[in-house]
Every structure is written in C-alpha cells, then in structure tokens.
Amino acid sequence: MFGLFVRFTCKDDVAAAAFDDLVARTGELIRANEPGTVVYAVHRVDGRPLERVFYELYRDKEAFEEHESKDYVRAFLSQRDQYLSAVEVDRLDFVSGKGVDVEH
After folding, report:
1. Of the ranges 11-15, 32-36, 71-75, 99-103, which one carries the lowest mean pLDDT score?
2. How many independent structural domains does the chain possess?
3. How many Cβ atoms from other residues are within 10 Å of residue 79's Cβ?
4. Prediction pTM value
5. What is the domain-level CATH number for residue 16?
6. Is residue 102 part of a domain?
C-alpha cells in the first residue's frame, strides 16, 4: 500500500469554501472511477478553520500514478493553488492498520 498525508491551508474563509467545493466535486469522481484508491478522506481541522487534511491510501504506487493521471485530478491540482497559502505533503509507507484489507 502507498499513502499520502496532505495538509492544506486556505487563504481565507471565502477561499476555504471554494476549496471545499472543488474537493467535493473531485471526490465524487474519485469514488466513482478509482477502484485502486482504497481511502480518500478529507477532514477539517478542529480549531483551525482554514486547514484541511487529506489521508489518501492506494492499493500500490501504480494505483496512485493512475489517480494522478486522471483529468479531474489534474484539474484539481491546477485549480487548488488559487485558494491556498500552504501545502505540506508526506508520502507514507503502510505498516499496519484496521479497516484496510491488506495482503502481505
């Protein structure tokens, strides 16, 4: 499995609302079209209204590369910066967990 933990900081409340809309539209397409995307979870951060965190888990790096190649993901990547003041990305190597069907 391959994952990402991404922290986005929006510019202001208006930008946060627009970013959330972009995320919702993109998420619908990810759910409908990406069987290799195991988890794609987006969270607001309690006490920090301009921050969003994404936890993304893919079957493998190939599934992640497939995700990144989708037109709707590329559109998200090109549109997101207008709403953001910061982006932090951590790439994750899965060790163990609950709720995820893992074959080793």
Report:
1. 99-103
2. 1
3. 13
4. 0.90
5. 3.30.70.100
6. no
